Amino acid sequence: MWSPTEExxxxxxxxxxxxxxxxxxxxxxxxxxxxxxxxxxxxxxVSIKKPNVKGIFPANYIHLKKAIVSNRGxxxxxxxxEDSVVTEVTATLQEWAxxxxxxxxxxxxxxxxxxxxxxxxxxxxxxxLLSGHLTQDQVREVKRHLTVRLDWGNEHLGLDLVPRKDFExxxxxxxxxxxxxxxxxxxxxSVQQSTSQVDTIRQRHGEACRMPVPHHFFLSLKSFTYxxxxxxxxxxxxxxxxxxxxxxxxRFMVRLNKNGGPRNPEKIDRxxxxxxxxxxxxxxxxxxxxxxxxxxxxxxxxxxxxGPPHLHYRRxxxxxxxxxxxxxxxxxxxxxxxxxxxxxxTCNNENEWCQIHENIIRKxxxxxxxxxxNYGLIISLQLLRGDMEQIRRENPMIFxxxxxxxxxxxxxxxxxxxxxxNDLYLTLEKGDFERGGKSVQKNIEVTMYVLYADGEILxxxxxxxxxxxxxxxxxxxxxxxxxxxxxxxxxxLPIPIDRFxxxxxxxxxxxxxxxxxxxxxxxxxxxxxxxxxxxxxxxDDIHELYVYKCDENSTFNNHALYLGLPCCKEDYNGCPNxxxxxIFQRSTKETFSVSTQLSSTKxxxxxxxxxxxxxxxxxxxxxxxxGRLRHVSGEEIVKFLQDIxxxxxxxxxxxxxxxxxxxxxxxxxxxxxxxxxxxxxxxPVMDTYIQKHFAGALAYKExxxxxxxxxxRSAELVRQDHxxxxxxxxxxxxxxxxxxxILYSRATCGMEEEQFRSSIQELFQSIRFVLSLDSRxxxxxxxxxxxxxxxxxxxxxxxxxxxxxxxxxxxxxxxLGSMPSTVHIGQSMDVVxxxxxxxxxxxxxxxxSESRRILLPVVLHHIHLHLRQQKxxxxxxxxxxxxxxxxxxxxxxxxxxxxxxxxxxxxLDVLLQTLLTIMSKSQSQExxxxxxxxxxxxxxxxxxxxxxxxLLRQMSDTHFQHLLDNFQSKDELKxxxxxxxxxxxxxxxxxxxxxxxxxxxxxxxxxxxxxxQYLSSALHKNFTETDFDFKVWNSYFSLAVLFINQxxxxxxxxxxxxRKKILDKYGDMRVMMAYELFSMWQNLGEHKIHFIPGMIGPxxxxxxxxxxxxxxxxxxxxxxxxxxxxxxxxxxxxxEAELIDKLDSLVxxxxxxxxxRELFSLLLLEKIEQExxxxxxxxxxxxxxxxxxxxxxxxxxxxxxxxxxxxxxCTVNLMNFYKSEINKEEMYIxxxxxxCDMHLQAENYTEAAFTLLLYCELLQWEDRPLREFLHYxxxxxxxxxxGLCRKIIHYFNKGKSWEFGIPLxxxxxxxxxxxxxxxxxxxxxxxxxxxxxxxxxxxxxEPEFFRVGFYGRKFPFFLRNKEYVCRGHDxxxxxxxxxxxxxxxxxAIAMQHPNHPDDSILQCDAQYLQIYAVTPIPxxxxxxxxxxxxxxxxxxxxxxxxxxxxxxxxxxxGPKDKENEFKSLWIERTTLTLTHSLPGxxxxxxxxxxxxxxxxxxxxxIQVVENKNQELRTLISQYQHKQMHGNINLLxxxxxxxxxxxxxxxxxxxxxxxxxxDYITKHPGDAEKITQLKExxxxxxxxxxxxxxxxxxxVHPEMRPLHKKLIDQFQMxxxxxxxxxxxxDKLSPACSGSSTPRSNVLVSHGPMSPxxxxxxxxxxxxNLLGSVRHSxxxxxxxxxxxxxxxxxxxxxxxxxxxxxMYHMQASPSTSSLSSTHSAPSQMINSAPSSARGSPSLxxxxxxxxxxxxxxxxxxxxxxxxxxxxxxxxxxxxxNFQRALIQQMIGPCKPxxxxxxxxxxxxxxxxxxxxxxxxxxxEALPFLSAHVGSILAPPVPPRSLPHGHYSLHFDAFHHQLxxxxxxxxxxxxxxxxxxxxxxxxxxxxxxxxxxxxxxxxSASSGVSSLSESNFGHSSEPPPxxxxxxxxxxxxxNTDEDLETPYLPVRYSLSEPDVLESLKSQPCRSHSxxxxxxxxxxxxxxxxxxxxYHSRLPNMENEEGMIIEDDDKHRPLHRKVSQPVSGGKxxxxxxxxxxxxxxQ
Length: 2038
Known about the structure:
Mean pLDDT: 74
Number of helices: 69
Distance between the termini: 98 Å
Radius of gyration: 56 Å
Number of strands: 41
Structural class: alpha+beta
Largest sheet: 8 strands, antiparallel
């Protein structure tokens, strides 16, 4: 049975429990549980972490802890019964654990490890605390360490500061706000201290801070390594003050043996001393540690003859010093000992021994000798601080080592009362002795004894130094041969106090002979008594003693014999009549000097003091003795304090009249002496004396009389020093008075009580009299008053012994009230007065409620005055916080209503005023200054805020009621409300309390919300109806809004534990305030209209707070606002405008979310449903909701790491919304500028210009003034528009879009002209001219265009299920663009087909991207068709202002002809129309419309042939005008490719397909088109003829055989066309001189740039094949611009033998006729990267490859390729062909099976399906010799699975079918080249996706190049109207390229050339005929990819160098070339030359 638990209520999990049983509760190790029930070894309960989940768990998994249970039963609460610090540590560690792991994730490694260390320490300290084995002191210390670490961690982790008192967390409910503020300050201070080093906080309590902290040096001698003396030594250490030239400490003595170790073996490792009691002043002195080394042995160290070996003398040896100043820094920083080495220097002259340390310090190196090695005394030092008790406690190890305490000479700074000391320090100074008839001087030794009065030698009364025991005799060291020795040795005489009187010292002088016997001969003595006859001790001075002669036989047994003699001169003066017949004769020429210093608490050297103590002996001198007491030193007085006081009161009793005043003065002197910090610790002695020993029962009368007499005279006297002294002594005087009265009362049973009371009354009248005097004229009086006020609060406690609390309070009130109440009594008096009040408030008297009621009014009166004047604010705040603290404490015990009432009346208003003043000053950055010293504004603000909050917190309903009732008028109430609301607002705005003071901030919020609830009723009652006051209401609303938005109240960001804690204590204060705000809004009634639109923004901010309840309360207010405005104005335009404005700024600040958008819409629509204005309301709400969608998208884009594109897209979308949907011009303009800035950042200058143009178009050329806006100053509209125009022109210039800038230049010019501003006009005209120059001279790159579809619901809604066309970046090809898009949308999936997606994709929760390249269709056809317009100009119009784009996909319609596929090959052409033309304000625009058309096979053929003709014309034109004559290779190859391809079939395939009778019969409607095709074929023959003529002119002699071969091939080609076109020979200028009928078509074709040779797409798979030869027919020009990526190859069988192969023509699929611009050619390939053609070349090779593309460049894509068969070598294809086959991976037909992958469809073809004309073979050696230098090295291969070849050309991304047979594997294995897959991602078709040789490019044949592996591939051919070309960087011309040239004219004017061509023999081959098309218009195509940087000299594998003549020339993209006229051609040459020059 489960039964409720009684004791087992709380426990900790000691083993994790997985909860595997039914109802099991999952528990983790360390969790705490609350136990509810138990049953047979199981408990049932909850985890504290998840209090809502109940379950069972095993009892033995739980460690039970004691706990307090309250509210037993179902809802009981359990609090563990343990130390609060332990609880805090537990909770904190749990909180830190989470954050600690995050530190690791965020790579904050340093803090991670520090925190781990601190957490381990906390766990350890917690364990110690829980063990229960610590003493109270240890518990306190452990708690201190715990709290220091907790605070350190909290600060470093950014957690809240915990206010503490005595290590315990304080409860904010139990203390006043002022105290809480101070605790926060002190906690912060301790945290700051601990932050520097966790362990360094040293707490000091109470008076300790007033006491100077003594310092102590711990010195330990480790060894004496440089001990080569060989004798025992004594080392004496002492502290020496250089400036004063004297030792300041006793000596520490160490006795060492001859080996350098301690003479006493027990002393090993214990040779240490503690030099104690050094004051802070001492630490600043120039102190040294001095070590004197005295050896004990022979007289001379190195002379064994001197003196017998058994006699040992003390002899000086050496000295070492160490400057404490030098080492203080290093030993202060560490807490352990630090070692130092002291060199021991020897003295050069023994006579100067006493000065050796000074000489070493002064570095007088001539006087000492340095040691030979660096070793010496090794000592360690440590600096300790604190009193001796503390030192013993903290460093027990030091004292365990038997440390020798070495004291200071004299008393320390602070003399402790129990410090008993009786030391006489004697210094052996010097002696002067006679030679005594000897030739050499004596070796003198002094022996000293201490003898008692009876002649007994006192034992153990002489100490040479601490560390060694005392002895009975002292022997000085001996100076060799010195009659005037100077010793300077200090000896300590610790003589017992009882033996001091009567004792004397005797000094005996002996000469130490060094002869054989070595005896010591006595020759004299001296003596001195220790006490004088008058009882005073030997004075601290040098005493010159008389030396008396004697010898060894003299006896000292009877010391009386010499004690009667004078010992010194003073003594002799005292007794002159000494008989001369005594035994001892004084030696008058000899003297001996000693000095003494007494440090005794029992003996005095002061005569006056002795006289006072024995005053009865001198009755007539009493007055004088009392007067002289002031001159006695303080040390002497405190030593005899009790005796002196007894004496004084006895004297007073003896004769009050006579001695009263003098005794009073003496008493005042002694009392004031104890105020000195040095004697401060004797105050307890004084207190004890008063309590226990004082016996002057009558003294009080005289003391009161004297005190009153002093005070009464203060008005008259000029000198008031003695009065001030008496005032300062007031406290102790009263103590004496009260104690005396008590004694008297006790003795007389309370007699004379009335007299005593009246005398005290009179005394207080005198005190009031002194304070009421006007002191402004007298400075001395001010000091008297100040002294009195300072002492006054100290007497309260004494008075309370004799009087009641009320009586004392009345005394005090009267006294404080007597002070002048003006604040003008002088600044210093103000401070003193307030300090006195402060001490009154802090006194015990004030803690009684009876006295408080009496004192509060006067205290508050003075504070009120000062606050009004803004004087001494800091002191006032201190007084106030003390008062609040006392009242808070009292309120917990009793009733304080009356006192709070007083304070509210007196203070509330003035506190508010003060705070407003301080806050306004701090906002204007002025420091608030009290008049004495500058104060920190923040501190003073904090103080007053805490005072105000304390007061408000103490106020109850009645107080608020009284306060509000007390206002005389509504104006007063209004002023008060405005003040208090303003202060509250400032509190929240200024963040008076730091962010981590959470306790303080929450308490503040709680007090504010409570106060506001009290005040809101008054506001509603007084200012709603007729007396409505907008200002007060507005202030109220602003406050409420600020309150709800406070960061400290946003609980969503807090940790769950913290949130729970706050909610438990205060609830959600935002909700409380929101309810208050809502109810007040409802109370407004018709006055609501005043707050529209003003409060819309603030209320909107409130609704955006992420608290559902607040939102639910506040959102309906907007409906209310709309309703009221609708009522008033008939619409709610203001609400609408303001809401939209504010929404924008608030959302951009990070407020609001998707939930808010839904809730806003839901709540408002619900409310609006019932309204008459429903429709407009719904439309508005919908509009706002849509705006929110966009704003949230925009914000997410901006704050995330989104790409520029996304941000720009988002901004454009939002901008358009503002313009088109809600027509907010200002917001629209703001976003225009944001968009412009983004474009500038992304360097989209053209787009930036178009964006700014939107703003410019909104402005007119008028002088209307415009206000300041964004970054624009206030200016006229004309000025702003002009500035904008200039900026836009500048951006167009940077974006090289000069054509767009020119109209603006003209517009500005018109304005300048109309204003006659010729300077500006000149400038703008020059600018315009420059732009024209730029158009003609500067190179511009043509961008690629890409169509992108965004499908799926995961895209931002502005992209969702839409398609866009994007203008690519410079050099950006399809692959790069695809990568960019996928990186921008990392979640997106690339679609692999071009078909429009179905609904499943559109509605799915994913992101799909569909990307392919598109071709622009220019609108401005006119300029493109003008013959004379240079291509430079046309190229701009081909790619700018484009709104339509085209994309082609090939497919077969009907049955496919196996023999000739061209019959059924159709093109599907898609045209996309955009919403705006490109370029514009964005790089991409949405597709508005799409159209599909189909192009028939015949139309396709026409376009292919026409494009090829155009390309040839352009190239020939360039050579004809000597633009490229320096290197004829390009023309050679181009002609070779076209002519030679014809031999292989070429145009024949078109002839077969379309000139066939069957075809003509079946398609009667195509007659005109067939004619057009025939004409184009004729034209091609004609153009080839002209080309050969130009070739003849420029060909290199070595290349003549090639030329000859070309002529032969041409004749064959032409003759083959005769069969189809009988009239051809008449037309061809190559064969006859007659003019061509279509020569006008051939006129002036754009020249062909050799640059195009390099421009083959980098990913073309054939671009590295070893082919130089162009063997494609003239039909190999590509069809429509986008079809080139489809490769159609044959699957015909292999020829039977080589001969067959040789004669075999290419099958239709190999022909260049295949139109292959398919949609998938631009599709993104999904093949794995190993099979894709992403570039894998090293840069070096990649660059070469790109440079080496030797065919003309063109934007349009090639259609197909024609592959010539290669000659077999031993039955195998030659190397280059194998490479080709591998790279092309076999021929492939387009197929329609949608299920086959590209890899499955691209299968190798048989190697024998190729044929190569023999003529080509003859030409190759020459060609390779001359062209080799432009060939690229082979491409590093990519691995493919054996036997698998995939044709991932762009053309093949659509579905193919009919997989052809596979290529035999053997061809691959023997191939020298590995296959290189084609690029899958290029936007170029034929050349990009596949290869020109496959895709119908200009001349795409392949031929072997002497077995070399150099690759070559061609570029696509031009359209009918264009030819792309850029100057070459590989070919260099010999002639000047700038030469203008004339257009090409194919006419009879060149008969020679034509004739020479005509005479060449022709080879007979049949060829189909062709026709010329009428008019075809092709859209512009896309440019090739950018190049990588060129390498200066590229060496290919054959060792050839690819020359780079112009190292600095940049690599350019191709530029379209139109059919152009003469001038344009000249411009083109100049332009191209310019580029080449670059």
